[in-house]
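Journal club prep — side note

Before the paper discussion, L.F. wants everyone to see what a predicted structure for a comparable chain looks like in token form. Sequence:
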Amino acid sequence: MRVTRPRGGINEWLHWLPVSLHKKLDYIIRQMCVYSHVWFLSREKKSISLSSNTFSSVGLSSVLEADVKQIVSMAHKTFEKDGPLLVIASGRDTISVSSSVRQLASDYVFVVQIQHPRTRLDRFDMVITPRHDYYPLTPEAQEQIPQFLRPWITPREPPGRNVVLTVGGLHQIDSAALRSAAKTWHDEFASLSRPLLVVNIGGPTSHCRYGADLARQLIVYLQNILLSCGTIRISFSRRTPEKVSKIILKEFGDHPKVYIWDGEEPNPHLGHLAWADAFVITADSISMLSEACSTGKPVYVIGSERCKWKFADFHNTLKERGLVRPFTGSEDLTESWSYPPLNDTADAACKIHQALAERGWTLRA
């Protein structure tokens, strides 16, 4: 099920509101718009047919909108036959829905919230969140936070028993997904010269700022290692600034060893993860780094020295575990290295099974 917010106009300024309150406010605004529009037209003695979709929100029509009453009713009706309902919610907009479901049907549901909800954790049966979300509690962070701001920074207390900490973000990449992707992308990747280096370029964030300077640094480093590479494949994300992509394209757009994905479907991301011999990833993207580190292959990071706050803490954790190394341009890619693949999603799933077992519940296959 999905949880969608109203879009367009003033709604873009209201995303800080709880989604349930935002929807109610949007309904009131839409009604006012409809009535004022009809009144205006009647004064002008004009007639017009208003489309029912004029003020509707855009969403995935094939996916049901999450409804608290419906989910609670389902949990009550199916409990005797099928047992409790496992509810897994992800993202800020789902918080009010998932916590309300648990409040109204605590004996019939087990609610898992993915990502720290920035609210009382006892409103959920389990919270799964990266350990760097707790960076504000470290001595280093406490020194950086002014005293008057500390009461407003979350989290305010260490994780309790119902909190599962991961290293990175959750995703769907595991050994089975990689084997499947290797078969799917065999024809495109099998004949490429090795080693194959995949370069994933994200975009600057408030905690990891960079621009054209990092692009130029990346170009110099890639030129230095071209001799030890068979093939380089470069991908940009939707957040990549145009000035960054243009610099990369100008330098490597016609290079025989370099392929730059043009953004057209199909997206080769899974093929890259399955077939790459090594990765270079900009430091801003926790998701791309988490996925790459699940392969057990060499992952090099560029720009981590520009990160601060919990992003810096995330990178320190990856380095301490031997999952990544800084990209310096002096690497010999014919010399490989490895580590136990990061397996956060499977580890979190095991924690859910354990928590359910403690209540005498099991998940059916």
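L.F.'s comment for the group: The first strand starts at residue 85 and ends at 90. Keep this in mind when we get to the figures.
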